[in-house]
Structure formats: C-alpha cells, structure tokens
Specification:
Chain lengths: ~300, ~300, ~300, ~300
Amino acid sequence: MSEFHGIIPPLLTPRTERGELDFEGISALVDHLVEGGVQGIFALGSSGEVPYLTSSEREQVLRTALDATQGRVPVLVGISEQSTNRVLDEAERLLSIGGDAAVVTTPFYALSDAGEIEQHFRTVAERVDVPVFAYDIPVRTHSKLPHEVTVRLAHEGILAGVKDSSADDVAFRRLLLQTRDLNEFAVFTGHEAVADGALLGGAAGIVPGLGNVDPAGYVRLYNAAQSGDWAAAASEQDRLARLFEITSAATPGRVSPGAAGLGAFKTALQVMGVIGSNRMTEPMLALNDAEARRVREVISAEGLL
Amino acid sequence: MSEFHGIIPPLLTPRTERGELDFEGISALVDHLVEGGVQGIFALGSSGEVPYLTSSEREQVLRTALDATQGRVPVLVGISEQSTNRVLDEAERLLSIGGDAAVVTTPFYALSDAGEIEQHFRTVAERVDVPVFAYDIPVRTHSKLPHEVTVRLAHEGILAGVKDSSADDVAFRRLLLQTRDLNEFAVFTGHEAVADGALLGGAAGIVPGLGNVDPAGYVRLYNAAQSGDWAAAASEQDRLARLFEITSAATPGRVSPGAAGLGAFKTALQVMGVIGSNRMTEPMLALNDAEARRVREVISAEGLL
Amino acid sequence: MSEFHGIIPPLLTPRTERGELDFEGISALVDHLVEGGVQGIFALGSSGEVPYLTSSEREQVLRTALDATQGRVPVLVGISEQSTNRVLDEAERLLSIGGDAAVVTTPFYALSDAGEIEQHFRTVAERVDVPVFAYDIPVRTHSKLPHEVTVRLAHEGILAGVKDSSADDVAFRRLLLQTRDLNEFAVFTGHEAVADGALLGGAAGIVPGLGNVDPAGYVRLYNAAQSGDWAAAASEQDRLARLFEITSAATPGRVSPGAAGLGAFKTALQVMGVIGSNRMTEPMLALNDAEARRVREVISAEGLL
Amino acid sequence: MSEFHGIIPPLLTPRTERGELDFEGISALVDHLVEGGVQGIFALGSSGEVPYLTSSEREQVLRTALDATQGRVPVLVGISEQSTNRVLDEAERLLSIGGDAAVVTTPFYALSDAGEIEQHFRTVAERVDVPVFAYDIPVRTHSKLPHEVTVRLAHEGILAGVKDSSADDVAFRRLLLQTRDLNEFAVFTGHEAVADGALLGGAAGIVPGLGNVDPAGYVRLYNAAQSGDWAAAASEQDRLARLFEITSAATPGRVSPGAAGLGAFKTALQVMGVIGSNRMTEPMLALNDAEARRVREVISAEGLL
C-alpha cells in the first residue's frame, strides 16, 4: 500500500471577519482533522480556494498548515498553475517550504492535447523531488486526464497517483483495474458522496471537501471499508451524503456554485466552533444568516452539534 | 421492493448479414438472457439501436421480443421520441402490442427546461396505462433530468422509477437517498462497469448493455449484492469491467463511438454463437475481422468461450 | 445563383386558443410572408415547433402551407428525424404531399461520427427526388456538420446547400470560401441578427425566425446587400437586431429558452393582428400579458404597429 | 472614437532554436507590425503563449515589446490570472514596467457567476491606473462574459472595452448595439476570418493573431471598412481567410490545436524571414518541415513571399 492512503481532506482556508488569512483558524482546522483521525492533509487544493489566493498567501497558508501538522500526518501540496514552466516555478517556491507530495493540475487556460499533458507530467516529475500526483478536475481545467497517459505514467513510476475529481466513475474504475498491480500507485476520489463505491472498487482513499467538517465520519467510512464491513461503510456514506446537503443551503443565484459548497463547509465549521468566521475570499460571498441556519439544521440532524 | 428490479439488459437488435431484422436472432438473444437468469428485458433502448429503427421496425422488434419472452420476465418498452405529443403517439402504438412498463426519454431536439420536463412526464404518465420510468441519458438528449423534478414525481407516485445513464454518480446517490422510503420506486443504473457501487448505494438494479453478452455474470453480481457479499460483488464487477474492454476493440476513428460499443456486444454474441451476424443498422459499420479477433481474445480470457 | 436564395423564413405554427392547429393562422402567416416579398418559405423547421408536432400534425401543417403558398414561392420542407432510415420514411411521407426541397437534419439522439454523417446525406440524397439541404443546428443535434464532409458533398453535387444555425461564423465563412465557385450550392444563415455580415461574406440568403414578424425588413436588408449598399444593409440589420430583443421579453425562468423566442414571435404576430393567438404547443408556455406588453413596446418602437 | 481602435495584433512570442526567449525576434516582429501600419500592439495575449510563460518571462517579453515599440503605437498588456487578487498582483507587477491599457481575463479555474465576474472587473478597474478591457475568451476560461454585466460596466465607464474571442457573433452584435452611444467604449473582435462583418456591425477594431503574419492586409481591410468600401473589405477578408488556412497545415493529432495555430503563424514569419525560428514553448511542438512547406505554399499563393 502506498504511504498515501485513507482520508486526506483538502484543507479549507479560513479567513477572519475582516477578510485576512486566519492563521489560528488554519491551525485549529488542522488539529480538528488530525484529531479526527485523517491519514493526511491536502493543502492548497480547490477546496482551499487556491485559485483565489495570491502567491504570497499560498506560501503563508502552506507554512501555517505545515507548522500546525508538525509531521503527525503527511501534507500534500497543490500546485495549480497554467502550464509546465509555471508549475515548475510554483513547485520550487512552495516545496522549498515543505510538503510530502505535490498534487499537480493538468494544464489549464492553455489548450493542450494528450501528448502535451503526458510531457507536462514527465517534466514536472523529473524536476520535483517529492512524489507527484496528477490532479484531474475537468470542471475547472476543462480537460480530462487521458486514460492511456495516466496508465502509462503509473506503470513507469512517474506518477505516484491521481486525485480524481472528474465525476467519471466508469473511467475511475477502469484506472483502478489497470493499476491494481502497482502497490505504490494510489488513486483517490474527490467525490465525497460516493466514496463507498470507490473504495469497493479499490480506491486508495478519499479527498473529501466535506471531510473538513466531519473527518471522523470519513475515517469511520474508510475503516469500515478496510475491514470489509461494507454495510457499515454504505451506512456511514449515506449519513455523509445527507450531511453533504449543506452544500444546497445557499439560495440559488445569490452566491456562486463554487462559493455555495465551500461556504457551507466554512459555515458548518463556524457553527461547530472550529473556526471563527465563514468569510470567503473576495469576490466570493459568504453564506448569510438564513443560509447558515439551514446548515445548522442539517449538521444538527446528523449529530455534529 | 418494486416488481422491477435486478438485471434488466437492454435488448440488442440483431440483423442478418443482409441487414434485415434477424427475428431468429432476437428470439435466441431473449432466450440467452432469460436462461442467464435476468429479471427483465428492456426492449427498444439505445442499445437496441432504437434511434436507427423505423417505426415499423420498432413494432416488429417489440412483437418478436414479447413472443420470445412469453411472460417469463417483464418486458420494459423504450419510448424514444422528441416531445410529449410524439411520445404519446409512440406509446399508444407500441404499448398496444404489449409490454409491462414504458421507459420514456426526456424531450430531445426540443430545448426544454425543468418545468417542461416535469409536465412532460405528468402528461405521459396520465395517458399511459403501464408504469412509467424516466430515461435519463444526457449524452443523447443533452438535458439532465432535474433532481427536484424526479424526487417530486417519485413521491407523488407518477414515476415508477428511473433508468439512469447520466454518468453522474453523485446525483444518482442523492436520488437514491431521497427516494429510499418509496418501496415502489426503482432506480436503475445503466453503467455496467460500476454497478457494484450503485447497488451498495441502494439501486434497484442494473440495465447493462454488456448484460446481453454475459447475463449470468450480472446475475451473479446482483445476487452477491443481495446477499451482502460485497467482496464477491466487487470481484464479479471487476471481471465484467475487464470484459467491458471489448468496447475498445474497434479501431478508433474507423467506426463511430456508438457503433464501437454496440458492435462489440454483437460481435461477442456472434463469436459465442448466440446470433449469426454482427451487422449494424446503416450507416453504422460493423466490427471487422481484426477487431472481432480482439473481442474474441477478451471474452475468451474472461471465460465466455 | 441557386433557385434557392434570399429570405426564406422558417414558418411558425400558429395554434388556436384551445391549442389546436390554426389553419387560418398558417395561411394568414404565409400571405404575410409572401406579401412581405420573401423568396421562399421553410416549413417544418425548428421555428415551426417541428419537434413538438405529431406526424399527423406535420402533414397537416405542410399541406396547409403548400395550399396557402400556391406556388408563389418555393417551399422547403424540414425533415427532422433521428437517423437515416427514419429520415427516409419521413421524407417519403411528407414529400408525397409536396415541397420543392428537403432540409434534412444530421442524425440526433444517435451518436454519429463524420463518416456516418456523410453516408447519411449520401443515402438521403440518392433516395429523395428534390434538392437536399443539410440542416446544421448543433444546439439541438449536438453534432456539428463536419466541414470536410459538407465541402465534399457540395462539390459532388449531392447537397444543394446548407442551412447553418451553428453559431460558428468562422466555419461559416470557411464554407462560403470553399464553395464559392459552385453556382448551384447555396449557404443560408439561420442567425437573424448578423445576416449583413453573412451576406457580405457571400451567403445565398437568410432563414430568419424573426422574418415571420418582419419579412419586409429582411427583404430590404437582402436587397440592400444585393445592390451593394452595405451601409443600408447594416442599418436595417441594426433595426432588426433591436427588434430581435423581443426574444428577451419573457421572464427568465418562467418559460423555457425555446419557448421564449418562438413565443415572442407568435406574440408579435398576434399583436400585429396576423394570427389570433400566441398559444404554444404543450408543454411550452405562451408569453403572458406582462410579457406581451414588452413585446408590443419593442415592435412599436421599431415601426411595426 | 476611442484611442484604442483599428488593428491591434496579439504579439507572438518568438523563441530561439534552443527554446529561449528571442528578444531580437520580438523586436523584429514589433517592427514588422508597426511598419505594417497597425494601430496598437497587444502584448501577453493568448497568441503570445501567455499561459506558457513564467512570471519572469512575461516581464521580459513586455519590457522588450515596449522598448521596441518606442511609443509609436499604444501597447495593451494582457493580465491572465485565475482570480481578482492574483490579477491585481499581476497587473501591479507588469504595469509598473509600462503599457497603455490592461486586457484582463474573466476568472478561470475558479467557478464564478455573473455577480463575481462583475465585482472582479469593478475591483480591478478601481485599482489599476490604465484603461481596463475585458478579455472574453470562453474557449480558455469556460465562462462567457455576461452580456448584462458588460453593458452595465460599459455605461458606468468602468470598462474601456472588450476583446471578444467568444465566437458568439450574435452576442457580439448585441453588445455593439447597446454600447453604440458610448464613444469611449471599444469592442474588438478576436476572430480574424470574419472581421469584415464585425466592422460592418460597428466594431472598433480587430485583434487578429494572423495579423502578426500580414499586418498590412488587416490594415487594408480596416481602411476599406473605414472608407465605406465594403466590397474591398470583404475581398481583403476573403484573402485573409484563405491565408488563415495555414492554421490547418499541421497534421491533425501530431500537434495540439493550440500549437497548430500559433505554430503556423510562427512558421510563416520564419519563412518570411521576420523571425529566426518557429520554436514553441514546451511542451508545445513546432511545425515540422513537411508542415512548414504547406504553410509556405499558402503564404506564397497569397502574395506574402
């Protein structure tokens, strides 16, 4: 089994009421996750509002997350840049701060094809000292990581794994099947509401945004799956899927789809007392009081208060 | 549990070498499915090449399928038309021949919204005598069945279920959760490679195109899931997912994506001796000899010869 | 120059207040168009709500349109079916009633590729006695007519032209350039707000839904372009583009996007006294009184009352 | 008329055979453009391979372009970053070097809505000292600049204009109509093959990638349009559209779509002797010899050699 496995939530980036980075909040959230039993932390992913963070903020967030984690679990570092050379610069800058692995996006804004994507990961993996995961998130990059490329890079040992947020469960299973014999290759799903099925198919773990809110629930799901108790896994998944309905708390049209989901996670953590504010990076709007009440109802019903 | 559950393959439409409907082949295929243990047959679905069949051919295929089935299992009838009034005409014409349920597409070619889709199913269900399933297949209709509409129609007893080929496993789980208390509402997945996860989440059954080739395999998968033996279900699913690789046998670019999948199923059945030809409805091309050899290798490796 | 050129509006399908086909309204609308100076009429296009019409209604609409036109201008007949064999049946049924050309969709609901689309038009053109136009409307079919296919079929004399509603003006210009030497091949744009540019690039004519409302305006635009008075053409186009804003009169979310546009055209014609009702085919909703007032304001400002 | 108008080519970024920035090539290309009569230069646009340039390279390219231009024409500076705060950092860094206007992308990788996009431009315009153009390029950002937002920001004087590469000519005309009375608001099209129609509709100018190759041709097109000689404009556009066929010289599948177009422009400039190499930023591939010969044939036929 890869050293990277289990529950690795993508760390949210709390802000103060005034909109500044909330370093205490970041640390408290890291503690909440580690105490919840997670096997790793993914810093600077999409759930961490990484596209909205300046370069300086990305560094501060990573430094704070590493300091708070203190090596209790591995920290994976998101490298979200438009193309190979920019990824190399970003990786050098961020990984000099620390981190146990890099989670690298496919190119975006650029209009690439399979050949360029393959070369992209070959170059990055050659130049970066830590294991490299491919970050497959077409809803943002608008380009699906090509199956043949991933399988080839997995078998050559160039990629350490994939963080799959592609919403293509058929391709996900196909990838699992064709990399099953590779002990060191780890396939993670980013879809928090169907993780039991992903684990049943052989996924190494889950990168659940909702895991910020209920890390212990995801750890129970993972442990049930590990022990072969699939009824318990499915039952825990059902509970977490009901909890995931907090992402529908925002009034449609008032806040953007991106802000609705992350804003609900932040609001839940604020209601639970883990962080002090549900403020989002501008121009994203935070959930308002009425929306926060809906979040409270759901998390209360699922036993988190 | 709904009377509609388990493995309900979408019946392929065999043709003779000369391109005519192969009535003997249809009957032989029905027998192959029923003897494989399936719980139902879905006639005139996309896998049956329904968009390519003339109105007269649709009637002949349905009549032959019903005659061959002889009531051994229920027969669901696909109603694939552009809009409400055309669906009503098609349903009247086809259901007068027979069938135990109607599987009705959302409107296509038409540019509808959620309100029109809801009214569409209300009108159809009111005018049709058999249970009505919604057929959610956005890759063809380019319109996803809206979640709120489905849940409302489920709770009002207007829809008997959904045949989901939307490739959106998160929405699928959400639908399962919000209709779980409805004993008579049945949610089917059309994705043959991830059916174990769908069943783990509570799906009523599977409508697998690949089930034409290996109905017994899908029945084993379903039975394992029913008995709670999820390790066996996942193992059988893995085998079927490897078998599903026959859909990659066609040379990319030579035949269309649609023809590649259905053509592989027909070719497998021809190799297995169930039907006499792998001919497709024009202008779709059949797999050629080299491609058929690749199909043979896969099905042989998975124990079907 | 092809016999098919100039302004060929896609005939709307008026209904009575009770929802039945309004044969008087169809005839009145045909007269309105012919008296406006149009060079042809396109019956059973998308603007005619063809996906919503039953087979019987399609026949009645065509018969009425032909009777009303009385040969004063050519009538092009839309053949909107899912695949080749169904197009052949539909064409035989409809063209036996009459019509001077067939406007044939690319396959839809079917998942085709360039090869199948090419064979589709070859087969249809071989079996149909009138000139065949390809109907390129990817917003409905979700498949763009491939450029190389169109050019080849144009040069071989298999297609008589294209009705382009693809919203791809670069591909449109490329097609114009590569078929310019073919006197009998006619390229029409379906985009009523940018027709001056299309004509400047060499288009044979326009198939404007808005031309139902203001046929004389489009004829002026066409005549100005024909005489090389491009300033007048652009000025008329600007006026028509302002008139096109009636398609924004419907309250967003209340009626579907499809119904908003066609409903505005019907409402304008009702306000102008050409037809008696703005009723749409169910489940499409008609514009309500408040929305109709907005339509009235716009058409009044543009001098149509 | 806005000070920004006419032909403003998006400056390519030449590289040496060894892959380094070719500062002499950049200067030579700037001279080629200015001597061709262009009214401005757009540095660091998509055609300049901006997503592939590191932050340091972006600075060097801009500095070189400004030095070469020497104020002969205005220089517009592309600011291509994922979100508001990152745009502000990038703008501060680049505009401190120089530039007469900023061309700012809508957010990308971020999942925004109309409200966030509006606030994005309000914040950027408030904080940046030069006029701000919105860069509408959904093929890369996957989000169309909302019409209502643009019109509002235009009328409030917040945006100085739009560089429209959205391939939506109907929305383009609508924007022209609704901002026609704003003398200081300039709408540019990025679509080099249909610029005559855009100018006929009232566009302020063109930002043609192909204008790197044939600036004088685009200047003739613009001048013809300005003088009302639309027949000459269309004829020149036809010639340029034929020249644009060099973007089809690359063998499909060998190089990516992005590299095929820009690589053809670089190859043409190399053949013409303006720059020394057609090398692309890695991992993009340059056109090979056979492909370069096809480029040579086209540009020779159109009189550029």
